[in-house]
Amino acid sequence: MFKNFSLRMDIRGVIFLFAAISLLFVGAAGADIATYLHSTEVTVFWDPSEGFSSEVIWQSNAYETLLRYDPLTDKFTPVLAESYEKSSDGLSWTFHLRKGVKFHTGREMDAEAVKSSIDRTIAIGKGASFIWKPLDSIEVVDKYTVVFHLKTPGTLGLVCSSAYSAYIFDPDFANRDWFYAGHECGTGPYMLEIFEGDTLVVLKRFDDYWGGWKDRHFDKIVYKWVPEAGTRRLMIESGQADFTNRLPIETIKALESNPNIKLVKTPSFQNLIALFNTAKSEDHPIANPLVRKALAYAVPYGDVVKNVFGSYGRESRGVVPFGLWGYSERVKQYTYSLKTARTLLAQAGYPDGGFKLLLSYTAGDEYERRTAELWKSTLANLGIDLEVRGMTWDGHTGLAQAADPNERQDIFVFWWWPDFAHPYSFLSSLFETQEPPMYNFSYYKNPVYDDLINTATSIAGQDREEAINMYAEAQNLIMEDAAGIAAGDLTYVHPISANIEGYVGNAAYPNVVFWYECYRK
Q: b/e string for 236-269 if b means 16 or more Cβ within 10 A?
């Protein structure tokens, strides 16, 4: 179904490709095209019920949700729902749908489609479908009214505005094989025109979009996977691209003086996570909690923030990132101390180290690689040989899901950002008991922890402060058991063409540009 492109592509090849793409649009009078270069695959999951990765950058422009969340104001704006209200006990939420909204298939969006979309996502049980745990049932009252009935009072507004597993799509076309053949059936301002596997997606304006096209808008959006940071920089500087993500800090600094580029700095809920393999056999060093704690004390957190993140990040405290509700100063945080690490290793029976560990990360991500290399250097002082291996995302996660835990990597490094703006996104996805593991690549199993985060989530709609206390207690269990750590919390800094207006970063929608709201001067 997909055409496979080489991970490595030289600069001339990328430029030639974009020249070829531009020829496709010659003759589209007045067409304005925006180009987004992404550091990793632009599509991992095609099915909107399964989405859980970088495809959010374009799917958020092709699909829509009932609401959109603004974490800076802690408020929701209507999208497919014109308005909503909830019952006094918080167990029923009634949504009044926007009339006259069309899917890209031509069919009208209605309450049955809303119910079918969410029911299908829950039934499939992939992606971020866990966000619907509080849901008991969906009731269609009439064509434009739908009621969500909950088992416990929850933060349903955050769920219905999620960047994943909350999209509304045409149920008549909701077939996994159809999606994975390169199709979509959303209601967004842009619809799929061209795709090349996980490498290229081109969207074009949907003429029947409910928002209309009276103002200045882009006609087409090109999303391209360009892993080489140097190539992305060249294309941004030369005007061949308009937006990119996660350039190395020295590149960001070099772009500060370029009048054709503006750097948009916004908060994020994204952090760099390292998960320790707790499932290896007892005779393996990393199976020992004391060794894992020593590894955590050997992370040079300050150097990571200073030399990898630059001024665009901060040291983490626990795994819920700063700025997201649920963050707490009560959470234990490891600090860099080789002295403490040596003491712990000696207690574990490894006073001189003398063992080797494998750390894997996503190839092409300079933040991950540089963090791993700094860690490798400090661990060498402890007699620990850390192999740092860059892998494709499929290879990275495939190794983590190997049937034999002893064949898996010892340390799994990756970014986590919220599927919905809720601490449960981090605490459930990364550390709740999972069999088989989806993203709990520490393979952590602790029923006390599981009960804490689920109880906290069930009361968060009524007593957020008590929920935060419970989330903090749960994170302290993770820290005590040394199942994993966050190396740093990222602040977004996105290079964008200086002649583009309207872009506002939103931490709840990581690295997403809502292009309908943007225009070129």
A: bbeeebbbbbbbbbebbeebeeeeebbbeeebbb
- pTM value is 0.86
For domain 11-58+188-262+495-520, the question of CATH label 1.10.10.410 is answered with: no
For the chain, the structural domain boundaries read 11-58+188-262+495-520, 67-173, 271-490
In this structure, what token pair is assigned to residue 182?
């390169």
Q: Which two tokens stand for residue 444?
A: 């952590």
**Which residues have a Cβ under 8 Å from the Cβ of 265 and sit 6 or more positions away?**
312, 491, 492, 493
Beta strands in 214-340 (DSSP E): 220-225, 243-244, 261-266, 271-276, 313-314
Sign of CA dihedral 444, 448, 452, 454: positive
Determine the Cα–Cα distance for residues 75 and 435; give it in Å rounded to an integer.
35
Report how far residue 260's alpha carbon sits from residue 51's, in angstroms, rounded to the nearest whole number: 34
Give the start-end residues of each E strand in 154-291: 190-196, 200-205, 220-225, 243-244, 261-266, 271-276
pLDDT at 437 exceeding the cut of 90: no
C-alpha distances out from residue 249 to 103, 254, 310, 409, 511, Å: 41, 9, 6, 28, 17
Does pLDDT of 131 surpass 80? yes
The helix (run of H) or strand (run of E) holding residue 452 is: helix 447-459
**Considering the chain, what percentage of its residues have pLDDT values greater than 90?**
87
Q: pLDDT of 171-211, one tens digit each?
A: 999 999 999 999 999 999 999 999 999 999 999 999 999 99
**What pLDDT digit, counting tens, does each position of 66-95 carry?**
999 999 999 999 999 999 999 998 899 999
Q: Which of 313, 415, 407 is nearest to 369 (CA)?
A: 415
Q: Specify the CATH superfamily of domain 271-490.
A: Dipeptide-binding Protein; Domain 3 (3.10.105.10)
Q: What is the distance, to the nearest Å, from the Cα of residue 494 to the centroid of all Cα atoms in its chain?
A: 16
- Report d(CA 388, CA 402) in Å as an integer: 19
Question: 10 Å Cβ neighbour count for 156?
Answer: 24
Phi/psi at 149 (5° precision) = -100, 130
CATH number, domain 67-173, options 3.40.50.720, 3.40.50.880, 3.90.76.10, 3.40.50.300: 3.90.76.10
Can you say how many angstroms the Cα of residue 489 is from the centroid of all Cα atoms in its chain?
13
Q: Over the stretch 447-471, which tens digit does the pLDDT of each residue have?
A: 999 999 999 999 998 899 999 999 9
